[in-house]
Structures are given as structure tokens and as C-alpha cells.
């Protein structure tokens, strides 16, 4: 798809807003048989849907529940089955670590081992985050010939390890045996080219063991989810867009950075994000605007909270439209139905508004209504070509 | 798809019923412009559809009429274009022959040759089945060094030949020239590794010619559709399901066995199948429940018969729901429109009911209504991931 699109891109001065309502899609509450979207009062979204082309998005494949990584990569135009982002890389993106091409990242746990070196607690009693910060500081003293090393605290017992330099490989087995009463495993190369990286990791672990000897309960480390930063074709070059991300949460900032968007400094609330959008309106062609509250409420199983989050967002829609984007897209990265208390596999409503989006029968922005839209049931990575087309930024294919 | 799904499977104790109404989809009768599903009185199926996610299934590709093999393999989660089951294997499955990995099967015809050995009747005047049984008995006397041999009667002039042992190949040309006035052809190897198997087959045919010399009109054999039993990833292991098939007809029992389901002993009618389902309800997670009458009426061109078959099935729906499956799927393996008097390429209605199937606008279980459902137009092999998701048996993809 990207290879098809890139040569068709033509420049112009149109402006595009992709509004991602995290965890947008929901499920009916059994008592009312109405979903969060069907329960909320959403005059502006429904009015927008009535003027838009609507449909439902599938991010990975039918029945597959997307994580935030694959969910957003799909919206950005990348097939999430082709461009995979491993656990370590996502963890690094989640703390907005400045990952570079070739870096290998792993998720780390501080853990507890007994005097024979056998694991007694895989999470070191969930040490407080400030202890984690102090101990990662200690591990930064480790020097490895052949690679730079970064150790970054995350939360409680979790940290991120990043190796940089030389030709590193992420094809390593995990050191976490995922069991108690057994010793941490050595990292093994999963293909021959990964042997030097395995060696570096094992030297790091060996030195960490010494440096943490007196730090019980956090007296050892476990590493998993080794992965290299994937090489993605850059979003701005592929789609010919000066692209900016307006997102308060680190994970989404990290994902936008991964594809080469400019990540704008912004405040914590959506009103702050709106101010950031207005402030940079002239400087970019494409804005990825992220709204987190819908997902948070869905993951908490808070149906009413998700309804309220949708209604709060709805009130901002006129402000976005007042900027007069040429294309306005509203969708989400995955479902987070309150009744599931987590991500879901359900397809996610999408609307594309532009002057050229076409006649469409949908007049409300709900799961049920969007099923009848002219966009149909759409793989997420087919959205960007449609968006560019609506911005008149694609020339025809074939003469 | 199978490679994507298997690592995401998580165990739980949910129960799933996949009800396959053979040849489900139909076409409008010209006089009423209503299909079989639109003509039948189906209160229970329509009520179920109103609570379900609905759509239309395409088993192979648009415009392609599926045989029963590809139709059911698709429903079981296998892409029928990737996993092909040859004519000989299907014929063996159709008589519930215990095919084993490595076996090569062919469909055989008894035929008539004249005294110069030229074919005068490719079907030996459709000899009665009891003659077929007697003659296959005679052919069982043949001994081939290097392989075990099985010759099984089917119906009238048809039989199945199975070779077992050593490293056999199904890459053989057919001996049936599909023309009269010409001699049966030798089996030729279609790749070099198949030469020994071709030799075995030709020795069998040579001996058969001698043994049948006095058996006119069935004095010779023709063989076609040579194929090896395909190696399929096992259904129970791939999907993490204790899976049972409840099907009275041999072909569907054979297909279920091919993918590794437990095939339960059952009686000839659907009431017997229901009794079998109830009896084994506790022992399995997944039940493939097969209903044949819809297809039989469709293939006979009996529109009213198909309507009646649908109505008879509808009356059983409450009994299935009374078992309280966590996921109930109703669909079919292909269309058998009465106006076509055979299988058709038309997409087949599907409904998935679960507590998490989502809001969906469809309220009747017909071809026309299901076109508007949230499942959209779905490749058959995408159904199983959706079914597992609805059973909460899949974890998310990517973090």
C-alpha cells in the first residue's frame, strides 16, 4: 500500500486533522442495549457524521484485539502485520525515550533472587518508583565495549534497557524464565547474527548482578521483549505531509515519533492539546490529535465515565471545525468497551469529512450506524490513502 | 492467519457451537422475489440474528462456488486456497475411510472396454452398488510390494483407491482420458519423486485389468484425482479447543476428522445430533454441528423443500440456546439455491451471538438483511478468530 501511494502523492496546501479517540468503540450495556456512543449526547459528532463518509475500521484482522502500537500504526497507514513493534520498543516509546534506528530495546524487571541465585519474586515486591530510579542510576555505571547502554526507569519494578551502536540484533531469547525457584536464563541468540548482542546483554546482566548485590529485594534483573526499532518508511516523506502529533501521553507521542512526525509540546488536558493545535495550525499539513479519556474509562469498566468522556470531546468538535481543516477524520485505535474492561476486537467507527467525501446514508456516529456507511469495513491502513484522496493530494493510478 | 492466531490463544472454559446449515444461502424465486430464507417462517433464527453480529461469508473468493471440502475448511479457519484437498482425498473422507498422513487416495470408476481395450462406457453402465462392492472385493486380492492397498466401494460405479506406506506422492496424471474410443492412460509422475508411486498405480491397474476380464460391463478401472492427505495444522492445538463434530453424513465427519476434531457417534437425523450434542456438552469446548437437509433440497431444486428444511431447523434453535453456549455461530458452507439446483457462489449469511458481539443493525437472518451487518463481507477463514474473540479466548496483538 505504501509503495502504491508514495508515487501518487502530489503537494498542495490542504490541512488534515486525524482525531484519534483512544478506545473509541464500545459495546451495548446489557440493561439498555445501547453502546457508549449510542448513550452519549453527541450533537456535534452526529452532525459531522451526517456530512461525512462513514464506516468501520479493522486494525489488524477480524477478531484480533489491537494493542495501542498496532492500533495507531494502522491509522498512520502502516499494515500492523507487516510492521511489528516489539514489547521492548513499545516500552521505550512509552517513556518517550529517543530510540534511534538500529537500537535494541528490552523491557526490564527488577527481581529478587535468594543466596543461590534463584528467583523468589519476579517483581521485587513492586518496589516504589523512586527506588527504581535510584537503582537504574546505579546500573548506568555499567560500560560495555561495543555498545552504548541506556537504562531508564519506568514505574515500580519496571525499567527499559536500550543498546545502541554496531550492528545489534533483537533476535534474543528472554532472560525471564517466568517462574520462581529457578535462576534467570542467559540471553541466547535466536539466529547466528545475534550472538554478539546476546554476549553484550549477558555481560550487562552479570555486572548488574554485582551492582545490585546489596539492593534486596531488587537484587537482580530480568529482561524480555528484545526488539530492534523497526525500520518504517517515514510518514512525512511517504505521504508528502508536514505532520505533527498533538498528544499528551508518552506512548502516543512515541508512536508518532516512530513514524517521523514532529511531536509538539503540549499540556496534559485536551483543552491544552486544542491550544497547541491552534498555535501550530499554519506550520503543518497534517495533525494527529489524540484523546485519551475514552480509553481510560473503557479500561476501568466505567460505562458512564466513557459516555462522559465522549460528551466532553464532543464539545470540542466545533473548535476543531472552526479551524476549517480540508479533511477531518474521527476514529480510534481500537475498541475499549466498558463491559470488557480492556481493549476489544470490535471494529471502530470512522468518519471522513471533506468537500469530496460523497453522499453517505449515515447520520449518527455510532457502531451500528457506521456499519451502513460507504466506507464499509475498512482495514486501518487503507485509511490514509482515503484521507489523502479527500485532500486532493493523490493523482490517478494509471493513465 | 493461523500463525497469527495460535500465539494469541488463551484457555478458558467457554463453550462454542458452530452450526453449519449446509448450502444455507439461496436465491429469490422469480415469482415472489424472495429467497428460501426470506420465504421461511424462522422466528427463532430471526430473533437470534437481532441479538447477534451479522454478515455474509465468502468461502473461497467472489464468484467461486465452493465444494463441501473448501466450504467447511474455511469455516474451520483454514484458507481453502492455501489448504487444498484433492478429489481422491475428499472421496475417501466421504466414505469415512481412516486416511492417515502420507496416504495417497484416488477416485476410481469401473468402466467398460472393448476387446481392443478402448473405452466404450466410462461408468460401466452405472452398475448397481452391490456389484461395485463385489468387484472391489475382488481387487483387494492385489498385492503390491512397497505399499499397502485399500480398495473401497462408494456408490454405483465409483470406488476409492488408497495407497499407504513408504514415501508416496500424489503428483500423478490421471488414467481417465475422459473420452470414449481411446485406451485408459498410464499414470505418469508429474514430478520425478512421484515415479515410484506411478509405477505402483500402473501395476495395480494392470492386475485389475486381469482380475476384471470376465466382469463386463465393469471390466476395467479409471483413476483420477490422485492426492495425498494434506498436512493441516490441527484445529484443537491451533485454537486451543477440545473440539467435537456432530454430523451424521460421512463427508462432514471426514472433514472434521481431517482437522483433528473428535467425531462423535450420532444418529441419522438432526434430533439425534441434538441428543449427541447434549450428551457430550460437558466434555468439549467447541462443537461443529452439521445440518444437511438445506443442501439436499437446494441441490434437488426443491424451493419449498428447502424452506421446510429451514423451518424444521429453526424449531431446534431454542434447544441449542437452552444449553447456554457462550458463543453461537450460525452459517453454512456454501450456497445451494434451489433455482440453481446445485452449489452456488453467493455469499452465505452468518451470525455470531455472544455477550460481546456488539450492536448490529440486522434483525432478520436473510441474505439481504445480513448484507448490512457489522461483520461485513467476511472471508470464511476469518470467522474462527472472531469466534475465539467472542469467547474471550484471544489476548491482544501488540502491547
Description:
The structure is a homodimer of 399-residue chains. By secondary structure, the first copy, chain A, is an alpha/beta fold. Chain A folds into two domains: 2-85 and 231-390, Alkaline Phosphatase, subunit A, CATH 3.40.720.10; 90-228, no CATH class. Helices cover 31% and strands 19% of the residues of chain A. Chain A has helices spanning 2-5, 36-39, 43-50, 68-75, 87-94, 129-139, 195-211, 235-239, 250-258, 270-279, 293-299, 303-322, 367-370, 383-390, and strands spanning 16-21, 53-58, 104-113, 119-121, 148-153, 158-164, 220-228, 243-246, 262-263, 286-291, 327-331, 348-353, 376-379. In chain A, strands 9-8-10-1-11-12-2-13 form an eight-stranded mixed beta sheet, with helices on both faces. In chain A, strands 3, 4, 5, 6 and 7 form a five-stranded antiparallel beta sheet that branches. In chain A, strand 5 and strand 6 (158-164) form a beta hairpin. The longest helix of chain A has 20 residues, at 303-322. Chain A is globular. The mean pLDDT of chain A is 95. The interface between A and B is large, with 44 and 31 residues.
Mean pLDDT of chain A: 95
Low-confidence stretches of chain A: none
Biggest protein-protein interface? A-B, 44 and 31 residues
- List the secondary-structure elements of chain A in sequence, H or E: HEHHEHHEEHEEHEHEHEHEHHEEHEH
Q: How would you briefly describe this protein structure?
A:
Two copies of one chain form a homodimer. The first copy, chain A, is of the alpha/beta class.
Map the helices and strands.
The structure is a homodimer of 399-residue chains.
Chain A: H1 2-5, E1 16-21, H2 36-39, H3 43-50, E2 53-58, H4 68-75, H5 87-94, E3 104-113, E4 119-121, H6 129-139, E5 148-153, E6 158-164, H7 195-211, E7 220-228, H8 235-239, E8 243-246, H9 250-258, E9 262-263, H10 270-279, E10 286-291, H11 293-299, H12 303-322, E11 327-331, E12 348-353, H13 367-370, E13 376-379, H14 383-390
Parallel strand pairs in A: 1-10, 1-11, 2-13, 8-9, 8-10
Antiparallel strand pairs in A: 2-12, 3-4, 3-6, 3-7, 5-6, 11-12
Amino acid at each position: 500500500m505504501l509503495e502504491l501511494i508514495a508515487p501518487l502523492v502530489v503537494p498542495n496546501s490542504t490541512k488534515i486533522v486525524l482525531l484519534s479517540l483512544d478506545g473509541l468503540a464500545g459495546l451495548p450495556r446489557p440493561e439498555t442495549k445501547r453502546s457508549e456512543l449510542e448513550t452519549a449526547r453527541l450533537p456535534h459528532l452526529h452532525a459531522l457524521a451526517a456530512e461525512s463518509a462513514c464506516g468501520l475500521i479493522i486494525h489488524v484482522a477480524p477478531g484480533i484485539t489491537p494493542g495501542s502500537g498496532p492500533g495507531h500504526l494502522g491509522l498512520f497507514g502502516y499494515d500492523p502485520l507487516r510492521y511489528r513493534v516489539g514489547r521492548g520498543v513499545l516500552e521505550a516509546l512509552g517513556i518517550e525515550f529517543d530510540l534511534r534506528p538500529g537500537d535494541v530495546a528490552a523491557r526490564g524487571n527488577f527481581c529478587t533472587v535468594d543466596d543461590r541465585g534463584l528467583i523468589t519474586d519476579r517483581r521485587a515486591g513492586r518496589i516504589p518508583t523512586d527506588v527504581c530510579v535510584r537503582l537504574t542510576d546505579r546500573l548506568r555505571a555499567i560500560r560495555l565495549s561495543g555498545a552504548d547502554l541506556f537504562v531508564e526507569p519506568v514505574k515500580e519494578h519496571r525499567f527499559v534497557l536500550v543498546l545502541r551502536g554496531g550492528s545489534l540484533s533483537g533476535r534474543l531469547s528472554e532472560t525471564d524464565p517466568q517462574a520462581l525457584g529457578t535462576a534467570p536464563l542467559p540471553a541466547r541468540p535466536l539466529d547466528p547474527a545475534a550472538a554478539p548482542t546476546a554476549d553484550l546483554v549477558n555481560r550487562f546482566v552479570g555486572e548488574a548482578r554485582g551492582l545490585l548485590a546489596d539492593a534486596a529485594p531488587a537484587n537482580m534483573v530480568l529482561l524480555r521483549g528484545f526488539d530492534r526499532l523497526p525500520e518504517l518508511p517515514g510518514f512525512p516523506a511517504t505521504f508528502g505531509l508536514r505532520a505533527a502529533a498533538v498528544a499528551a501521553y508518552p506512548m502516543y507521542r512515541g508512536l508518532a515519533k516512530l513514524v517521523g512526525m514532529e511531536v509538539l509540546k503540549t499540556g496534559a488536558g485536551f483543552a491544552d492539546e486544542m491550544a497547541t493545535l491552534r498555535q501550530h495550525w499554519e506550520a503543518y499539513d497534517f495533525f494527529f490529535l489524540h484523546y485519551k479519556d475514552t480509553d481510560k474509562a473503557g479500561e476501568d469498566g466505567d460505562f458512564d465515565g466513557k459516555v462522559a468522556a465522549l460528551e466532553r470531546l464532543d464539545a470540542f468538535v466545533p473548535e476543531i471545525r472552526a479551524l476549517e481543516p480540508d479533511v477531518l477524520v474521527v476514529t480510534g485505535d481500537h475498541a475499549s468497551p466498558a463491559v470488557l474492561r480492556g481493549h476489544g476486537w470490535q471494529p471502530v467507527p470512522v468518519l471522513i469529512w471533506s468537500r469530496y467525501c460523497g453522499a453517505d446514508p449515515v447520520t449518527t456516529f455510532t457502531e451500528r450506524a457506521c456499519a451502513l456507511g460507504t466506507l464499509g469495513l475498512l482495514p486501518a491502513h487503507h485509511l490514509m490513502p482515503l484521507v489523502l484522496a479527500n485532500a486532493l493530494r493523490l493523482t490517478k493510478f494509471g493513465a
